[in-house]
Amino acid sequence: ICHPSEFAFYLCSHAGIQGTSRPAHYHVLWDENNFTADEMQTLTNNLCYTYARCTRSVSVVPPAYYAHLAAFRARFYMEPGVPEDDPASRSTRTSNGSCVKPLPALKEKVKRVMFYC
């Protein structure tokens, strides 16, 4: 059920708890390592076991989950209603016109501690 000339595959990498397993569709855009189809599918399946928040395999590769989590958290640093000429604002303006708050300074007791999300 994949594209006849492009590198795409379906992978059901997790067991559904209540029979809800659905395969994920992967479309390889660029393969600079020249993996074979079997190697790419094995790598993708093995990555599904590396998600730090789950002791079982997940349905989509963890880098996709981590990117979603980073984007979700980043929205809390956006200030959509700050006027451009506000001198009291310490925000940085992005290319699309929204403002980004500066990240809070790290406290001394957590500077040398590993952070897990």
TrEMBL record:
This is Protein argonaute PNH1. It holds the Pfam family Piwi. Residues 1-79 form the Piwi domain. PROSITE patterns: PIWI. It comes from the Eukaryota. Signal peptide: none annotated. GO terms for molecular function: nucleic acid binding.
